[in-house]
Amino acid sequence: MANNLVFIATCFFILLYPSALANRTHFSWNETSAVISASNADGICQSMVQPRGYTCEEHKVTTKDGYILSLQRIPLGRAGGKKGNRIPVLLQHGLLMDAITWLLSPPDQSLALVLADNGFDVWLVSSRGTKYSRGHVSLKPDSEAYWDWTWDELAAYDLPATFQYVHRQTGQKLHYVGHSLGTLMGMAAFSKGQLVSMTRSAALLSPIAYVGQITSPLGRTAAENFLAETLRWLGLHEFNPKGDAVTKLLKKICVNPLIDCTNLLNSFTGKNCCLKPSIVDVFLDHEPQSSSTKNLIHIAQMIREGTIRMYDYKDGGQNRRRYGQSSPPAYNIANIPKNLPLFLGHGGADSLSDVEDVKRLLAILKDHDKNKMVVQFRKDYAHADPVMGTNARQVVYEPLMAFFKVHS
């Protein structure tokens, strides 16, 4: 059955993205030049923040390995006022998403805007390879070298560059909010003692650390059947699941009132309890975004092995050249400083951040300072509910802001 599923999935990708085999570096209908010109023509501030009545600034930061990342700053709430000593909050999205993750809902339900309206200095970042962060000091996105990274590099380069930039701009320590892969990036950095001196607290929503127990049929089948490895073998170094033809088709389908298009997300994330079907239309206007195929291989390795290790080249010589040892080093999550305030929010219906995997993470963190750690569990929440749920403000954001205020 699993082999049949992966065969169908592979055929599905090839049928929907025939140009991928014509230009083997890309897994996309869209040419890179079109994406770059679009990102220059507009921006997240202009398209998603300013039309809602908020002040917004566009910023750029360059990582040590040369990637140019897009950041947006929302320094004030909709009511305006003066810039002052507002405490900064940095929001980091997950896999196949970008900073628009935090702006998909109406203003009173989007975390970025809720935080701004409640007195925080809000910063959004889009990871390398996404629409607004495709720049590099020397590499072009149509090159294989541009896509030679995994979340190891996101934790080692993207996150530090962003933290340092926000810290310099504001002169203050910041609160960090990660969703999904954004939580793994944060935990990986904190476990090495990095960024801690600039961090007031960290909120981990739908935390991804151990993923050996994920119940997402698509995620598990792809990992167990080495689908990402097959795509890379085909020469597809950029994984971009968003094609214009596919998006238009899905949006046409979603207009039908008899079809609940939240099921498109549920098939990956688990059954989200609290999404309006109309959110999918907004979602498809902006998401999903590109990642490297190598990054998907790294996550598949974690699913198969149940470990949190650096990328495995599956060759002792390559691993030695990269890491100085024949196998990739592990991230020791227990090394996260015990006095770093942590807010963990997870759901019982989440098939990516599975309850059993989160229990394993919490067992690793069992010696964390109890006064510095809050664990929030919502039985009916799945992976997308914390960032797109209609009741996320009451369920997640209000308690999260109270947590921030305690640890400010």
TrEMBL record:
The UniProt record lists the keyword Nucleotide-binding: no
GO molecular function, one term: hydrolase activity, acting on ester bonds
Signal peptide: 1-22
Signal as UniProt keyword: yes
Domain Partial AB-hydrolase lipase: 46-105
Similarity annotation: Belongs to the AB hydrolase superfamily. Lipase family.
PANTHER family according to UniProt: LYSOSOMAL ACID LIPASE-RELATED
Name of this chain's protein: Lipase
Organism: Lactuca saligna (Willowleaf lettuce)
